[in-house]
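Tip: read the tokens left to right.
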């Protein structure tokens, strides 16, 4: 079992630890903020709990799978017959992990999306009258719910009632079950399209409200209190936006991998997945790549839905820090300004002193010259005559 590129036992175990820890920390901040500032629960506060449980469970599964060398490694070279009809214990354990993982990943992604959509309702919903956002938001909630239920059902019954075939030989998987990679591909594509729609809705709403900023009647339709954002809020919003964008990118990468696997379909001896070249029979290497990016998408998405609701907590926590930084910058600017003023004043004084010294020296020289002239003895007549050339010798 070699190690290719960035997906290996260490990296798989790392993300299995990092995302649950960060996720639980972010969830704790979110709950703290809700209890401190609102003391009430909304639907999104309930939906995020099963999402958190599934994120942690998937992370534990990734760590265990890495320790057992099920995910992050590579299958040894084997013939086509060995791949299709072989039944090593290692492969059976990996297939059981996959079966549970794919069901769980649909649930956690679905709950995460619903959490974000219901949270958005608290920000953009209309007051008294229905708005375009209300209709679009409810449509997206319906789409995500149907998507989640449909794909959970398909993942559970992908082999009909022949559940054993899901973790038997590859031959049994291909003959008793639907095309699993086609199922994963359709799930990844639809998931990514929904991500794009959900990601775009807040951006469109903020742009719409900003464009109607001068119309007070339009602004009264929305519960927006943070369009005039402070520097702190802008930094927070930028970080959450970046995380959301990374979630979409991770979903795109996962989609590309499963499409590449589906297109290959064991037709070529080698397959390239996101720049990583694998033997076609190396199903462990291909599955490891897909599981890796799936869990990255899950983990980052969960962080986003936790952090978007933590604005007031971060405001309180970062307020003293920003005030301290502002005072430091102000003090540094003041010191620099005073130093510049002193330097300018010193330069002017130095120039004045130099001028005074030059005048004083000049005056002294002139006075000394006149004094010397007064005290000097008269030049003898014979010397003056010799200089004029009129000296007469006797």
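Filled-in amino acids:
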């Amino acid at each position: 079992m070699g190690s290719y590129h960035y997906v290996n036992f260490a990296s798989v175990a790392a993300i299995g630890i990092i995302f649950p820890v960060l996720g639980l920390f972010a969830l704790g901040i979110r709950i703290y903020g809700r209890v401190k500032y609102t003391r009430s629960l909304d639907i999104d506060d309930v939906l995020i709990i099963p999402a958190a449980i599934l994120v942690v469970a998937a992370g534990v599964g990734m760590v265990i799978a890495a320790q057992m060398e099920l995910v992050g490694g590579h299958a040894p070279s084997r013939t086509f017959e060995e791949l299709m009809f072989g039944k090593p214990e290692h492969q059976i354990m990996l297939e059981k992990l996959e079966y549970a993982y794919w069901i769980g990943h649909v649930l956690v992604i679905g709950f995460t999306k619903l959490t974000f959509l219901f949270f958005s309702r608290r920000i953009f919903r209309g007051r008294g009258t229905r708005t375009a956002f209300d209709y679009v938001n409810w449509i997206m909630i319906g789409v995500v719910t149907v998507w989640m239920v449909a794909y959970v059902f398909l993942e559970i019954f992908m082999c009909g009632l022949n559940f054993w075939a899901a973790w038997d030989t590859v031959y049994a998987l291909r003959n008793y079950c639907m095309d699993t990679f086609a199922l994963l591909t359709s799930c990844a594509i639809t998931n990514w399209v929904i991500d794009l729609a959900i990601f775009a809705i807040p951006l469109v709403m903020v742009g719409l409200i900003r464009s109607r900023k001068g119309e007070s009647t339009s602004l009264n339709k929305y519960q927006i209190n943070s369009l005039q954002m402070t520097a702190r809020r802008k930094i927070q919003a930028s970080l959450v936006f970046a995380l959301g964008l990374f979630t979409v990118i991770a979903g795109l990468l996962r989609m590309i991998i499963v499409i590449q696997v589906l297109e290959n379909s064991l037709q070529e001896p080698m397959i390239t997945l996101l720049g990583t070249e694998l033997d076609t029979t190396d199903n462990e290497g291909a599955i490891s790549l897909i599981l890796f990016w799936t869990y990255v998408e899950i983990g980052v998405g969960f962080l986003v839905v936790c952090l978007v609701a933590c604005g007031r907590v971060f405001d309180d926590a970062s307020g003293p820090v920003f005030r301290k930084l502002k005072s430091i910058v102000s003090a540094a600017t003041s010191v620099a300004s005073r130093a510049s003023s002193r330097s300018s004043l010193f330069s002017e004084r130095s120039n004045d002193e130099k001028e005074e010294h030059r005048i004083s020296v000049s005056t002294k020289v002139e006075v000394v010259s006149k004094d010397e002239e007064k005290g000097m003895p008269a030049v003898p007549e014979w010397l003056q005559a010799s200089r004029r050339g009129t000296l007469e010798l006797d």
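The chain is about 75% helix and 0% strand. The domain at 9-309 is CATH 1.20.1070 (Rhopdopsin 7-helix transmembrane proteins).
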